[in-house]
Amino acid sequence: MGLNLEDKKAVVAEVAAEVAKAQTIVLAEYRGIQVSQLTQLRANARKSGVYLRVLKNTLVRRAVQGTSFEGLAEHMSGPIIYSISEDAVAAAKVLNDFAKANDKLVLTAGCYDGNVLDKAGVQALASIPSREELLARLLGVMQAPVSGFARALAALAAQKGETESV
């Protein structure tokens, strides 16, 4: 049974709210994927903070109208699963990682920073480390000189203690 007008308006409003705070939207075709695999994909998306839904293309076209994601409208045909995220790479990473293990999920297009991406562009975006990974690397780089200095002081103190006991 189809959605009535009020339900359609609610879906458009919900998607428009997600799109308003999103940095990235990725589209993928999901023909032939088993329900258990889709459930796993949804669980991975939830863990990554990604809004992942199978939606009517016409409703999503209305939701993205007038936004920087409007260019994706021409790619919205067929059975599409929509991945929307506030994190620039999370939406692409979730679908790309799943597509590597499951050949039935086919990345079709994406949009980041107002630029429509093809499949290769989405894969390139997915290969960028996440914000958390980059922050962890930065923290490691910042801690390295301090921890090296602390080790040098400890070694110096240990060496001084050995010479005093002799």
TrEMBL record:
Part of the ribosomal stalk of the 50S ribosomal subunit. The N-terminus interacts with L11 and the large rRNA to form the base of the stalk. The C-terminus forms an elongated spine to which L12 dimers bind in a sequential fashion forming a multimeric L10(L12)X complex. Keywords: Ribonucleoprotein, Ribosomal protein, RNA-binding, rRNA-binding. This is Large ribosomal subunit protein uL10. It comes from the Bacteria. Pfam families: Ribosomal_L10. PROSITE patterns: RIBOSOMAL_L10. Forms part of the ribosomal stalk, playing a central role in the interaction of the ribosome with GTP-bound translation factors. Belongs to the universal ribosomal protein uL10 family. The keyword Protein biosynthesis does not apply. PANTHER family: 39S RIBOSOMAL PROTEIN L10, MITOCHONDRIAL. One of its GO terms (cellular component) is ribosome. InterPro entries: Ribosomal_uL10, Ribosomal_uL10-like_sf, Ribosomal_uL10_bac, Ribosomal_uL10_bac_type, Ribosomal_uL10_CS_bac.
